[in-house]
Amino acid sequence: MSADPSPLALVGVTAPAWPALGALVLGALVLLPRPPAERWVARIALGSLWLSFASMLAATAAWLLAGPGALEVDLGHWFHAGDYGFELGFLVDETSVPVALLVGVLLLATSRFSVNYLHREPGFARFFLLVLVFGAGMLVLVLGARLELVFAGWEVVGMTSVLLVAFFRERSGPVRAAIRVLVTYRICDVGLVLGAVWLHLAVHTTSFAELGRLAAAPATAALVPTTAVGLALIVAAMGKSAQFPVGGWLPRAMEGPTASSAVFYGGLSVHAGVYLLLRTAPLLDASPVARTVLIVVGAVTAAMGALSGQVSADAKTALAHATISQVGLMFVECGLGLHRIALVHLVAHATLRYYQFLRTPSTLKDALARRAALGRTEPDEAAARWEGLGLGLRRFLYRLALERFAVEPALERWLVRPVLGASAWLDRLESRALGRLARPRRTKRSRRDATERPATETQP
Amino acid sequence: MSARHAPPPEPTAAAVVEPDDHPDPEPRRARLRRALEHAAHYLPAQAPLEVFVHHNTLHAFEHLPFHEALGEAGRKLGSRGYLPEERYREAFATGRITEAEVAAALADLAPPCRLSVEGFPSATALARLVLLHGVRAETPASVRWSTTERGAADAFAADSSPLAQERIVVETYRWLREQVYGDDGVRNIAHLVCGDADGDPVARLGAILGIKPKRAALLEALEDRAERVAVRALWTACRELTSPGAATAAPRGAPSRLAEQLAAVSHEDPDDLVHPVLIHLSGAFLDRGQSQWSMPDREAGFFDAWRRVLTSGHAVRAAWLSRLGARLRDGLRRGVDAEGAVLELVDELGLTDVDLDAFVEHTLLRLPGWAGMFHRLEHGAGSIGRTSARVRLVDFLAVRLTLDVLAWADVGRRLGHRGPLAELGAHCATLPLVAPPAARGDHDTAWPLFRVAQLAGVSAPVLRRAGRAGVAEVVRVLDAFDEPARLRIWHEAYERHYRDEVLHALAVNVPHRRPEPTPRFQIVTCIDDRSESLRRHFEALSEAHETLGAAGFFNLAIAYRGIDDPTTFPLCPVVIEPRHRIEEEPASEHRVLALRRQRRLRRWGRVNAAFARASRSLLWGPLVTAASGLLAALPLLASVFAPWVAGRLRRSLARRLLPSPRTRLTAGRPSGAVRPSADERSDELFDGFELDEKAARVGDLLESLGLTTRFAPLVAIVGHDSSSVNNPHFAAYSCGACGGRSGGPNARLFARMANRSEVRERLRERGIDVPDATVFVGAVQDTSTDTVTFFDVEALPAERLPALDALRDALAEACRRNAHERCRKFESAPRDATPAQALRHVEGRAFDLSQARPELGHATNASCVVGRRLISRGLFLDRRAFLVSYDPTLDADGSTLERVLLAVAPVGAGINLEYFFSTVDNPRLGAGTKLPHNVTGLFGVVDGASSDLRTGLPTQMIEIHEPLRLQLVIETETERLAAIVARQPSLARLVDHEWVRVSVIAPDGRSFATYEPGRGFRSWSPPERTLEEVDEAASWYAGKLGYVAPARLVGRSPVRRNRHRLEDGSDVR
Questions:
Q1: Does the distance separating the beta carbons of B613 and A403 come in below 8 Å?
Q2: For residue B245, what pLDDT is reported?
Q3: Residue B9 domain-assigned?
C-alpha cells in the first residue's frame, strides 16, 4: 500500500466522479418543469466524460511514473461497523488501466454518437443521464480496489442496463425483456455479495492486492476459501456476461437504442464478468474446481453461442450470440490461467463488437455491396458447406440452434416451476396454519385467491 | 400488382348459405383460399427494404371515399386517420386554419342531424362552437377536478363571449326572481340553483351567496352574485336534465376473435406466448442471407419445414407447447398439408365456414407486418438472397394457428376451462371483463352540454323549458358530432387553408408571366417535391435558365445493370415491368482498368465476407477479434468524432484504390430486330431499344414536357439519388419513379438517345425540330449531399464544353443555395451558415454513421402542379410541390394530359398518402422510431429483438410532415379533365373518392375551379389579401424552422424593371 498517493494519482482517481457529477447536474435539470435543451444535455454529458477521460490519462501517467507494480490510492473509509470498515480505494494497475481507457473511449464515442442519433427523441435527457450513471458505475467497477466497491459499481451498471433495455417503455416487449435481465442479475449478483462476505469472514479483507499476496504466500494460502468464493464469484460473472445456463437474457436485451445496445452488450457491460474474473485471478487460480467450472461453462457457452448465432435472422441477435460465444472463450482463457491473453481479447473484442453493433443498421446495404462485389447471388461457401450436411443432421442441428438448445424451457420446467410450485405450497401451508390460528375463519373465496395467484404467476 | 390494388372482394351471399356438413373438402379449400385472398388485401404490401416504394398504406380501402375509408380502416386495423385534435386546434391558434375555413368545411359537410330546440342554436352553429372551443366529453375525474377545484361551476369559462354571459345572467336572474315569492321560495330557488345531488340545497345556496338564505335579502344577494348563481344553476340543470343512460353493452367479440375474448377476461394476452416463437421462426424461414445456416426443407414451405425441423430428435419445450410435438408428428403421419391443417384447426375451434373470412382476416391482422411479408414474397421475391424457400401465406397461417390453439388452450386452462376448445368462447362469456366498458355519466353528457350552453348563451331556464326531451335531442347532436366527425371537419378546413394558399399564390403569379428570353440552359428534373427548390434556385440565377419536370425514369422503363451490379434492376415505377435491358460496360480503351476494378472489388468482397464470418465464428473469432479489434478503433473514432473528414477520406481512398474506367451504356438493337410483343405477361428482356422505340420514347417525353420548340443549346436531364450511411430505409429516400433507386442511368440513357442524329430525324418527322446545335447531357443529383454529377461528358462536342462548365457552375451554385434552404428545416444545422457551409453540413450528414436523418425525404409534400412552369416560376413553394411540366396549348385532344396524369397521379398520391398515414398513426401505419430498429433477414426491420415487422416510414422521416392529401392543381379546362377522369377508372378512384384533391387553372390563367366529388367543379376566386413579395427565397425563410407560407420572389432579375403584365395569356410563347 503506497502511503502517500501523488497528486497526479489523486486527480486520476476522480475519473468516476466526473460522470457521477454530470449525472447529478443532469438529474437536477430533468426535474425542472421544462425538459432541458438537447444542446445543454449533450454539453454536460460530453464535458463530464472528457474530464473523466483526462483523469484516466492522469491516472495512467501516475501509474507509469510510479514504476512497476500496482498503484493503490486510498481515500479513507466510508463507514465503520464493528471490526468492518468500508474502505474507498482505487487500484491502478496493468489490468485496470487498459480497461478504464477502453471504458473512457467507448463512453465518449457513445455520447458523441447519440447526440445525433437520439435527436428529438423524447427520452434524450434520460438516455444521457443513464449513460453517465453507467459510466460512473463502470469506472468504479474497473478501478475499485476492493470487492465491495466493485460490487457498488456492479449494481449501478446492472440497474442502468435494465433501465436502458426498457428505454422504450411505452411498448411491452422492452419492459418484459428488461425484467428478465433484472431477474437474472438479481439472482446472480448474490454470488458477488456472498463472495465478499465470505472473504471478510475468512481473511478480513477483500482488497485485490492483499488477496493476491495472501494467495501467493504458502503460509497464508490455505486460509483463503478459494473454491467457495471462486464459485460464488463465477456465478456473479456468469450472470453479467450471459454465460450458460443464465445467458438467455442477452439476445432479448437488444431493445434499447442501437447505441446503448452497442455500449452495453457489444462493449462494456457484458465484459464486466470477465473483468471480475481477471481481478480475482489469484484467488481463482488457486482453486482447480473453480478453474474447471470456468472452463466448462465458458466452453459450453462458446459452442452454444456460436451455433445459435449461425441461425440468427436479425443483425443484433446474431451479434449478441457472437459476443456471448467470444466471452465464453474469455472464460475458458481465465480458467486456463491465460490472463494476459484474456485481457487483450477483452479489450480488442469490445472495441470491434462495439463498432459492429453501431453499424448494424448498415447490414442490408453491406450485404448488397458484398454480393455486388462478389458478383453472385448464390450461397457462399459456408452456406454451401451447411447445405452439404445430411438432411437429418441438418434438421437436428438447426432445431437445437434455433431453440438456443432449449436452455430456457429446461430451466423453466426443472427449476423455475418447481421453485414456484414449492413457494405456492409453502404459501398455502402458511395460510392454512394462520387460518387455524386466526378466528373468525377466512372465507372460502379468499383461500381460493391465495391458492390461485401463484399459478398465474408461473408464466413469465 | 394490379390484383393487390383491386378492391377486396366482399364475402358473397352464396358463400354463406352453403351447408356446413359438406363431405367434400375441395369447396372448403377453395373457400379458405378465398378467405386468404380477401384478408391479404388488408396486409401491408411493402416489399423488402431495398426496393422500398411509396404506396398508399390504405390501398385496400381505396374503393371507399377517403373519410369513410379512414373509419373502416380504424375498425379493421385499429388505426387513426387524422392528427390529434390538439394539433388542429394549434393550427387554428396560429392562423393555419381560420374561422372562415371551419365554417366553409362545416357548410360542405352538413352535420349528421338537425336540431330544433327552442332557445338553442342550429346544429351547424352548435358544431361550430364545439369545434372552435374544443368542447368534448371528459373523464369523470377531470370533470370533478374542474367543478370542485377549478370553479368551473361557479364562473363562466374564459372562452365564452360576454354577450352570451350577459344573456345567461339576465335570463337566470329574471327567472329566479319569479320564484322568490312562491310558497317555498327559498327552497325552490335552492333546488333550482344547487340541486339535490350534493347535499342540502339550502345550505349550499347559502355557501354560494355568502349569506344565510332568507327571503328578505335573497334578491339582493342573487343580484350580487348573479354570475355564480347563473353558472351554478346552469350546471345543475345540465346534470338534472341529462340521463346517465345505460352502459354500452359489453362487446364480447365474435367467435372469430377468440384471442381478443381471452385477453379481455384474463390478465394475459395469448399473443404474448405465440408472437416471440412465431416471429423467431418466420424470420429464420424468410431470411435471405443474414444467417449462415438456412432452414432445412424450406423448399417445402414454412409449415412443412417447421414440422420436420421441430420433430427431429427429442425436445424440451415450454409448458404451453408440451403437446406440440405429438400434434406435429400426427399431422406429418397423416400427410396433412397447410390448408388441411388450417381447416382442421378451424373445426377444432368449432368455427363455421361463415366465420372463415372474418377469422382468417383477424388472425392475420394480429401480426400484419409478417403476414404481409409472406404475402408479398409469395408474389415475387426480392433481388438478393437465397431464394429456394417456398413462401406461401397459408403456411404462415397454419403455423400461427397451430401455435394459437395451444396458447389459447393454455390460457383457457388457467381460466378454469377444461372441455374442448370449441367451448372456450362460451366459457369466456361467463367470466367478468378485466376492464368493463365505461358507463355514461355527467362527464360525457352534462359536461359537454354545460360547456356548449355557456358558449351559446343558453341559460338554465331555457334548458328547463326544453325539458328532458329537448335536452336529450341536444345531447344526441353532441354525441353524433363525435371525435371522427370533428376531426374530419378540422382536417378539411386544414387542407382548404393550404389549397387556398397555393391557388392564391398561383393566381397572383399567373398575370406576371413574363416574355421568355431565348433559353441558355434547360434542365429536366424529376417531378419530386425536393426538386422544387433546386429548380427555383437555378432559375433565380438567370432569366435564361429554364427548368422542366417529368417523372424521374424519363419515360425509359429499363432493366439496368451497372458495371458493379451482379444482376439487372428495374429502373421504372413498380407498376411497369421493364422490357429493355441496358447494361453499363467499360469503354473499349478502359477494359483493362475495368477488369482491375472488378478484381479488386472481388478481393474486397471476399475479404469482407470472410472477416464478417470469422469475427463471429467460434474458432477464428479470438484470433480475428484480437488482431483487428484495436484497428477497428480507427474507423470507429474517425467516423464518430469527425464524420465529414472520415467520409471524405473513405471516398478518396476508394477512388484511389478502385480505378474508375470510362463506361458507356450498351448499344441498342438494330432496327427490325424482334420487338417486345404486346403480351404483357411475357417477361422476356430485350437488349436496349431500337431506333423507332428510341424516337418514340424521346418524342413522347418531349411532347408531354411541352419541349418541342425553343431548345436551349444545352439541355441537361437530371435524375436523382440519395446517399446515406447506416440507414436501412435508404431506398425510401431515392427516386420513387425508379423503384427506389437512382434515376441517373435513365437520365444518361435519355440524353444519349436524344443526341443521336437518326433519332432527331425521326423526331423531325413528328414535328419536333431539335436544332443541330442543341446537345443533351445526362446527370444525377444527390438529394442528400446536393451534388450534381454529369455523365458521358467526353462524348460531348468540344465546342460545348465551355457551356457545360458554365452549367456545372450554375448548378453548383444552385445546389449550395438548395443546401442552405434545406438546412432551415434541420434543427441541428448551423443557424447562420453561408451556403458553402450549409453544403458541407448536408454532406456531413450523409457520411455520418450516427445520423438518423441524412435528409428529410418527401416530408411536407402537399401539392402537385401540372402545367407550364411559367405559371409557377418565381413562386416559393417551400419544397412542398411536385412540379410536372405539361403544356395545355400543345395538347389539342387531351391525350398528353391523360398520359401525364396516369403516370403522375398514382406516383404522387402514393408518396403523399404513405407520408400521410405514417404521420397520423406512426405506431400502427408507420415504422416507429429508427433507434431500436433491427435489420431482419435482410428484408425488413423489427423493433429490438422481436416485434412485428415494421412497415411504412420511420418517425425520423415524418416528424415534420404535415399530413395533407395531395392538392393536385392542373392547368387545363374543367371539361377536359372531367372527361379524362371519367375515362380512366384508376384516376376516378383517386379523384372521386378524394384520395387526391383536384383544382384547375384555366390555360388563360383567368379562372380557377376546385373539384368536389358529387358536386362537380366549383369556381374559385382568390381571396382579397395580398401575397408576400420578397427579394429572394433566403430572406423569406431565414430563421424559420417550421411552416413558411408561399411567397412570390421578385428579386434580382433584370427583367423585373421592365416587367409588364400580359393581358392575353395566349401569346406568351
A1: no
A2: 60
A3: no
Distance from CA of A65 to the nearest CA of B (A): 25
Residue A194 CB neighbour total at 10 angstroms: 17
Q: Clarify whether residues B614 and B743 are in a common domain.
A: no
In A56-115, the residues whose Cβ lies within 8 Å of chain B are: 105, 109, 112-115
Position B162 in a domain = no
Under an 8 A CB cutoff, do B640 and A113 touch? Answer: yes
Residue B1016 has φ and ψ, to the nearest 5°, of 80, -165
Q: Which domain, by its residues, includes B669? A: 511-587+662-673+684-793+806-1050
Beta strand segments in B527-638, E = 545-550, 558-561, 569-571, 580-586
Question: Has residue B106 been placed in a domain?
Answer: no
- Report whether B527 contacts B882 (CB < 8 A): yes
Of B286, B598, B727, the CB nearest to A361: B727
pLDDT of residue B221: 83
Identify which of A176, A358, A458 has the shortest CB distance to residue B849.
A358
Closest to A417 in 3D by CA, of A459, A371, A376: A459
Measured between CA atoms, the residue of chain B closest to residue A456 is B414
Low-confidence ranges of chain A (pLDDT < 70): 1-4, 376-381, 439-460
Handedness of CA B464, B465, B471, B477 (dihedral sign): negative
d(CA A444, CA B765): 99
Hey, are the CB atoms on B384 and A302 less than 8 Å from each other?
no
Indicate if B583 and B602 belong to the same structural domain: no
**Backbone dihedral region for residue A82 (phi beyond 0: left; psi -120 to 50: alpha; all else: beta):** left
Same domain, yes or no, for B650 and B669? no
Based on the domain organization, do B288 and B351 belong to the same domain?
A: yes
Q: In whole angstroms, what is the distance from residue B767 CA to residue B776 CA? A: 18
When computed from its CA atoms, the radius of gyration of chain B, rounded to whole angstroms, is 34
- What 3-state class would DSSP assign to B820? helix
Does residue B505 belong to any structural domain of this protein?
no
* Residue to test with chain B: of A352, A362, A387, A412, most B Cβ within 10 A: A352
Is A119 in Cβ contact with B316 (below 8 Å)?
Answer: no
Domain final residue, candidates B430, B464, B479: B430
Distance from CA of B741 to the nearest CA of A (A): 13
Q: State the total domains in chain B.
A: 3
The position carrying cell 336529450 is B472
Say which residue, B276 or B198, is predicted with more confidence: B276
Residue contact B315–A406, C-beta within 8 A: yes
B622-637 tens-digit pLDDT: 888 888 888 899 999 9
Considering only residues 380 to 399 of chain A, which have any Cβ-Cβ distance to chain B shorter than 8 Å?
A: 380, 382-383, 386-387, 391-392, 394-399
- pTM of the full structure: 0.92
| Same domain assignment for residues B829 and B966 | yes
Contacts of B945 in chain A (CB under 8 A): 173, 177, 251-255, 314, 316-317
Residue B932 sits at the chain A interface (C-beta within 8 Å) = yes
- Do B523 and B598 belong to one domain? no
Chain segment B862-912, per-residue pLDDT in tens: 999 999 999 999 999 999 999 999 999 999 899 999 999 998 998 899 999
Q: What is the CA radius of gyration of chain A?
A: 24
Alpha helices in B287-437 (DSSP H): 302-310, 324-334, 338-348, 356-364, 368-378, 393-414, 424-430
Contact B628 A348 (CB under 8 A): yes
Distance CA A98, CA A343 (A): 9
